[in-house]
Design goal:
Elements: H1 4-28, H2 32-55, H3 61-85, H4 87-92, H5 94-115, H6 124-142, H7 148-171, H8 182-191
């Protein structure tokens, strides 16, 4: 029997998945004020569900996959929001956005070819990149102009994360959730 915390944590994650279409609708209808608050709430729930899952030891494969989907949808909504609501900023930074999109596409394609599904590695680098993405995307809509420093930090760590995940896809023959990082995987492989 599952602990009650399992259902609470997954409900928070499911909220993030279900709020994504609402975020997209708010972008389309250009309701920037409501969008920025709901985006901030989605990033906040991302931090909460991960913390609660570890705190109450209710991690699961389903939870990890749902969390990855919720993360990707939230970040996607933030990026689309930038394109629509902060177009001037994105038009100046299109090269870096393109680099990230290419790295993400390579990572997803490699994962589907290798495992038949997206990864849910949740490495330490991915967590750091997600925090920086969240801080940048939230502040981008609350400040008059997005912070270039935060943008470049988010781009740098997200690029490193995606490169690490691409390497992990090639190193790990079977799908795994909650991998700590490339260093740990290499260390475990040396022990064998």
């Amino acid at each position: 029997m599952r602990k009650p915390g399992y259902y609470i944590v997954n409900a928070i994650t499911v909220y993030r998945v279900l709020s994504a279409p609402v975020l997209f609708l708010l972008i389309i209808t250009r309701q920037a004020d409501l969008f920025k608050w709901l985006l901030a709430l989605s990033f906040f729930t991302d931090a909460i569900d991960g913390y609660l899952a570890r705190r109450y030891q209710v991690t699961s494969i389903v939870g990890a996959r749902l969390d990855s989907i919720g993360d990707d949808l939230t970040v996607l909504a933030g990026i689309i929001g930038l394109f629509v609501l902060k177009h001037d900023f994105i038009s100046r930074e299109y090269l870096w956005v393109g680099v990230l999109l290419i790295l993400f596409a390579v990572q997803v394609i490699a994962a589907f070819r290798r495992y038949g599904k997206m990864t849910s590695f949740h490495t330490w680098l991915a967590k750091l990149a997600a925090v920086l993405q969240g801080i940048f995307l939230i502040t981008a809509f609350f400040l008059p102009e997005p912070s270039r420093l935060l943008f470049y930090l988010a781009v740098a760590f997200t690029s490193l994360d995606l490169l690490e995940e691409i390497i992990l896809v090639f190193l790990l023959p079977t799908w795994k959730a909650n991998v700590k990082g490339l260093y740990r995987v290499l260390k475990q492989q040396r022990k064998k």
